Amino acid sequence: MKRNAFAGTGKVFHFTFRQLLKSKANRRSLLVMLLIALISVPALSLIRGGSNGGGSDTFLIDNQTTLSLSGLAGRLEEEGVGTMQEASADLRDKADLRITDSPDGLIVTQLTGSAYGSVSYAAQITAQFLKEQQLLAAGLSEAAVNVLAYYPDTYIMTDEEYAEFSREKADDPSGSSITDDPAGPAEEDEGFDQGSYMVQLGLSVLLMMVSILSVSFVIRAVVEEKQSKLVDLLLVSVEPGALLLGKVLASLLYALLYYVVLIGGMLISRTVSGLFMDTSGTENYLTNILKLDLGPDVLAVLLITSLLGFLAFGILGGICGAGCSSIEDSGGAMSLCMLLIMAGYMVSIFATAGGLTHGNAAKAFSIIPVISMFSAPTLYMYGKVGFGPVAIGWAVQLFFILLLTLLAAKVYSGLIIYKGKRLSLGNILRMARGKEVRV
Amino acid sequence: MSLIVSHLHKTYGSNVVVEDLSFTMDGPGVYALLGTNGAGKTTSIRMMLGMLAKDGGEVLWNGAPLTTESCNIGYLAEERGLYPKYELMDQLLYFASLRGVSKEDAKARIRSLAKRLDVEEYLYPNAFKPSSDMLGQQKKPLRLGGPRKEKPRLAEQLSKGNQQKIQFMTALLSDPELIVLDEPLSGLDPVNTDLIRDVIRDEIAKGKYLIMSSHQMATVEEFCTDITILNRSHTVLQGNLNEIKKSYGRVHLHLKCEADASLYIAQAGIEILSEKENEYELKVSGESQAASLLSALISAGIPVITYDLREPSLHEIFVEKVGEEHIHEA
Asked: Could you tell me the sign of the dihedral formed by the alpha carbons of A201, A202, A205, A207, in that order?
């Protein structure tokens, strides 16, 4: 690679970014993103059944056991979920939660509210409280109870699910129960976890969206330049590598604007909504059910991992785009990048849903390029991998980017003056090896 | 300063696209690269300017390899284009910045060239907005906040000719020492052709080095001192244009008579190149053959209106040379 192979990158970057900002379509999509972010907190609070009067919800609990629930009311109020009331015999039909005893253990059944609403959160806290009581009754120290109680997430059942569960238990008495048994939930955590799955899903969708956007910006910019017959004019003033890198960086920065708008909009939404409505339920949902921990280290991992991913996809998109002679051809170039992005997205989602978020699998997903971009931030946030695998993942990503840059330096100048049928990645690699291209 | 192009060579697989091209410009002037379509002109220019890797040969500017760092180059590519959806002024300032021109200098140069090429109304739409009086329309009531601002023009809103003038401006934005113009006048109407011609003349007068590739032989003949004719990747004729013409001698006779002279032309054994209503383009062997035809016509009482014995035009030389090549190859 020549020393000045990227001379002029700054000028290309500045021009491309300015034009991206000037585009009406791009400004509209940023505005839509901002609006979505602004309505996110009030919408979530309304969906979760949060009141707008600033007061808490009251939960009616039908306790069909002999257990004492003293202390639970305080816990629910402490968590900001609401006020607890034990249902008398005549109010049992109106209960939000029911506590029953079964040979497998205590079962908390959610009778009202949505799956992710405040009742669901109250059920979660109730189940945790009951478990703590049982562990204490079994003679465990408070410290041990705290540790054990932290791990398991008790599965909360709907009425129908409980009926189904009871039938299955009757058919198969050896079947395992999903209750407050300490050994059971510990195993649960190895598999599907509602909070981490929701975060993985949300983050993967966001990363996929931004990746596709930035790649499409790069491909469109490269192909438009070729189609507009500007390449000769530009090449006399600027190195081909700079033409590509400037576009990739501009597209990257523009895609990051979506992040800024989204996060900034949500912060504004949270602050403003808090003045008019009760958003404590939403906040509890984020911190207690999703266990969303956005500390500086998590944010740094998220930012660096996704930036490296965007950069790699951007350069790949630029190389593939340069093999096209017209916008009509660019669909083929986009499909390869889409395929990789979708592969990373799907693996990250299925790995979380399938419980492959521990041990070597988690480490592998934090290291393998394409997948690491989607998986590493969530795995790190939930403590499934340490900083080591994430750092190795960055090194692998950087190596991957270096390889793509070397490929671009070798073939890009030839590709952008090439005219004809779209060159596949295979042909581009043949070109890099100095072999004849088969179109 | 000098430009030396030495033994340029390029192949694509087994296909030779430029074969051993060499020429020199020892001082300011205009050099023409001529050739049929696909002869290798654009490939040669791309290699000279470093856009395309050379398989052989070198290009030196003042003894050092020609690069954008060693020489201020202005280039008008044969394949012309602009970003269709971007504002014209943005594009011009971008191209100028890529050539290392400061924003202030670029703006001054754009204004001056826009005036010369008559494209100010597209680059400064608010300064050149015709008033309602000028259009003979009824005056509209005054608008709060002043007159409505015209939106900056996009490249796609311009006619092809005006786009071409903007593209021509891009080649001159950096006040280059070496200007390479690939088909600068193709597709322009006579008025715009004259505008660009004037600017080219000025650049030549300023002592610039100019390399021109064109199919319009009259344009080349007007500006160029030296030429290279390429045909199917190799050089078929090269040298000073005047000397080349002299070497052919005065062998072209333009003859116009008041009556049919074809019988006398045939008797004199002269080849007719073209004929239209007693007006002939003839190829003679020399001045004596032409003189004998003239005396025969006078003796026969055929009035001669035009008798112009001259050297062949570049067009005729080009056609002859390239034609010869094709016959040899056949």
From this structure: negative
